[in-house]
Amino acid sequence: MRLRFLLKPGWLAATLAVIVFAVACYTLLAPWQFRRHAERKATNDAITSSFSATPVPLPEVLGSSRNAQWRLVSATGSYLPDGEALARLRTVEGAPAFEVLTPFRLTDGRIVLVNRGYLRPVAGTRVPEYPAAPAGRADRSRRRAVARSAAPRRPAFSDASTDGHRQVYAINSATVGRAAGLTVEPGYLQLERGSPGVLGPLPLPELDAGPFLSYALQWLAFGTMALLALGYFTWREARPGGALAAPRPSAPQRTRRKSVAELVAEEEARERTARRPHSERSS
């Protein structure tokens, strides 16, 4: 039966590999890129709409980080400079930077983390002098609400190398709050240019859709091509004369090596023939 080749171990292994790859393309790789494209589009839309939007009270968007991404908000409260920390190993506009993170207590008692902007290091990795957060009550400070920050990996620290400044490796409200003994709401706020307490204003993300949509389509194409290739080779092998059905070439017969005695006997026979008279050889 021509389809028996489908049960060969090598063919089964190749078929399984192709199916697993195609399923991964359709269910994991392509959807992952589609999600990244959707997230980038949502961010771009939120940033674009925020340019003309009216600031909303911050308490209205707390607890809803997805809807609060990059929205202009207004807040009333006071800074808590004792809980301040610096995010180290940051890059802003292609150059090293520190980002200053200061807790901010709202009038309702809740505490949020405010990213006051960036500082350029001096003398290599030293923290420069910078203005302290404004003291007293701050009214209607305009900020952009930013999405939930990265999960904490390493705790905050302060030693001789930090000149007494508390530093963290990731911008995370829980990490800063734990080091300061405060309960800080998830996410953080980014100050606008001209807001009270702002340092070097952080730039907004570029409004670029990125390559995610094209990557998703490529993964779908790869999965489809793999299945089509499997179907083509299966059809080719099922036809008469398939490569798997081709007869194996017969192994060449090995020539028996002559023994020394046989070689000597043949040589003597040639010599006797050569010594016979020409008339005898021709008769």
The number of distinct β-strands equals 8
Cα shape: elongated
Number of distinct helices: 6
Radius of gyration: 39 Å
Largest sheet: 5 strands, mixed, barrel
Poorly predicted tracts of residues: none
Q: Based on helices, strands and strand pairing, what is the structural class? A: alpha/beta
Which band does the percent of strand residues land in? 15-25%
Oligomer: single chain
Instruction: Kindly report the average pLDDT value.
Output: 82
Q: Termini, distance in Å?
A: 65 Å
Give the topology string: H per helix, E per strand.
HEHEEEEEEHEHHH
Strand arrangement across the biggest beta sheet: 2-4-5-8-6
The helix content, as a percent range, equals 25-40%
